[in-house]
Amino acid sequence: MSVFGFGFDCKNKDYKVVRIAIQGSKNVPPRTEVFELSTGAWRVIDAVVPPYEMHHCWLQANLNGSVHWLAFNPSQIGGFRSLIVAFDVSHEVFREIMLPPSVASEHLLNLSITVCGNWLALCHYYKVTDRRACTVWVMKEYGVDTWLEMFTIDLEQGVLLALSFWRNGEVLLATGEGELVSYMPKKQQVTHLGIHGSSQPLRLYTGLFYLDTYVQSLVFLDRENGVTDSEAALLLPDA
Q: Record's superkingdom (predicted)?
């Protein structure tokens, strides 16, 4: 099994792909490989991968120069513990981020992560009596592991999975019928965007939709046509 992540190395101005190769044996530790666009080659790094299991890891969040995945510790006393594993793209090290205590005991199938503006966001899916709901948590101060509960989405309107957030506060979601919709938390109103995926019914983590945040940059994927720091200074307006 392999877990992939993509991010930008702000320190070296380079794009990187990280691959965590899980060998399938508890006696063989995972191997971490990094692909650098500047060299066009893979290399094995010495970063120690936290001893946790990461499932359905096409769901990742890129924030503060790190790639984030949901994981869980199956050896936790009293039951498994869910958490977030982050990989610093520049320094090539892993770190752990704890989830809200009320959510940490939830299975990964009931959780997803994304980015809300400049915050790391956690979505918790659960049932209230016979109704399904999703509570959105955000980490307003990155790295402090302090979470704030933002709002709850009623999933009885056909919504299945929260994907990302727009600047105006709307949430982009996928429905069980494979449609991309927006949701305004204040009005609790769903707006159909006319964007459809597969005709097959959507199940959580099937990968029908994936959204990520685009940030403008003067560093190009084609390094031969890239812009140096001195050239970028000439192109940017005075502060």
A: Eukaryota
Query: How far apart are the C-alpha atoms of 8 and 67, rounded to whole Å?
Result: 9
In a domain, residue 204? The reply is yes
How many domains does the chain divide into?
A: 1
In a domain, 111, yes or no: yes
Other beta carbons within 10 Å of 195: 12
pLDDT at site 99: 92
Q: What is the pLDDT of residues 132-145, one digit of tens each?
A: 888 999 998 888 88
Q: Say if residues 6 and 65 touch (Cβ distance below 8 Å).
A: no
Contacts of 173 (CB under 8 A, 6+ apart): 153, 159, 160, 161, 162, 163, 180, 181, 182, 183, 190
Strands 148-154, 159-165: parallel, antiparallel or unpaired by DSSP? unpaired
Percent residues over pLDDT 70 in the chain: 81
CB-based burial, 52-85: b 16+ in 10 Å, e otherwise: bebebbebbbbbebbbbbbbbbeeeeeebbbbbb
